[in-house]
Design a protein that fits this description.
With 453 residues, the chain is mostly helical. The protein is 69% helix and 0% strand. The longest helix has 55 residues, at 2-56.
Length: 453
Amino acid sequence: MKNRLKGFFDKESSIQIVRTGKWIFYFILIGIIAGLGSVAFHYFCQLGIHYFMDFAAGYRPPAPAGEHHLLLPTDVPFNRWILLFLPAFGGILSGFIVYTFAPEAEGHGTDAAIDAYHRRGGFIRSRVPFVKTIASAITLTTGGSGGREGPIAQIGAGFGSFLATRLKLSDRERRIMMAAGIGAGVGSIFRAPLAGALFAAEVLYRDPDFESEVIIPAGISSVVAYCIFCLIFGWGSLFDSPDFVFQNPLELGPYFVLALVLVITGILYIKSFYGITRFFKSLNIPNHIKPAIGGLCTGIIGFFLPQTLAFGYGFAQKALFNELTIPFLLCLAIGKIITTSFSIGSGGSGGVFGPSIVIGGAMGGVAGRLFHQFIPTVVTEPGAFVVVGMAGFFTAVSNAPISTIIFVSEMTGSYRLLLPSLMVCSFSYLAGQKWTIYDKQVKSKVNSPAHAG
């Protein structure tokens, strides 16, 4: 009898080991593909910035400390008039590609992935990641304002969905593999693997809820993708920042004011984004023309405020070291809200996390510099408000406070501001919970079609 029981349990253990090994292999494979996708997308963006922004318009925006130019800058003189029409040119190209081959690739890809998780059983058409990659690279490198997390989230999610479909897995298993792809893509390209895994589990819901079955798979895939990306482009964080330290409780007062400012700015961002989105949807013209019109509007703003075009991470880097003036930071934040709304809301392709980091950092820089002028003994480092502003603003617009705190900490390499970040993000979340930039989020698991029945 003992031998029979022992044999039975040994057999069960062997089956469990094989099953676990199989799933680990799948998640590693998703991480490899997402990592290679991040590498390819980053190359496309670097080449596009060089040939479109630098070679054509003579505009060379600064880069964050963790990124370096693949090609040497040219000596082409700056031409505002080319910069005026360049986003419209990108809009024509990206609009044609998206609406011809995969209309669901319009806008910001993270929302599409969230919708696929809740309402489509994790299914994403296999062509979407390729269309999204090309269209987003064109939109963003011709001056369109947006981020990289949307495109790369769809690349990783698309492969996870494709693999699960090919293996004839269940809807639940496909959703998990799709979410693992989201975490891998986002965690790798922003060099924040832990945050990428948490983001994939948290961004699905408006309430403070996590999709717990997603965290470990997304963690495995995210680590693999991050390692592949960093093997090519180098290790370290995206931004370099001074060694900020929180050591004065009186500073929590200014941080509370910052949280109020971030919530108000976040609501403005969401209202602007979806107001312009609805306007373009109401236009009775062919869809592939709309991104060109949005690009032209973006170019008009960029003619006067070129810092609001493309990614803008380099200006966030400068703000961390207190190198930008208050008027410049205000123009950067407000201008970035408008250019992102036109670029993505018109049907262009890109993400909304990247602009949120720049907007939040700029508003944090404004608050930090003002408080430093009036109470320099309390607010000694204005740059610290840039870090906390990044986290607080994206929390206000995304309803994802935990992953955002980790995101910004990993992206800046600044882990000593967790306390003020936690306070600002908590308040921003509570005050801004009614609004979200991710329209496809559901309130909680109870409200998700994925968990119905």
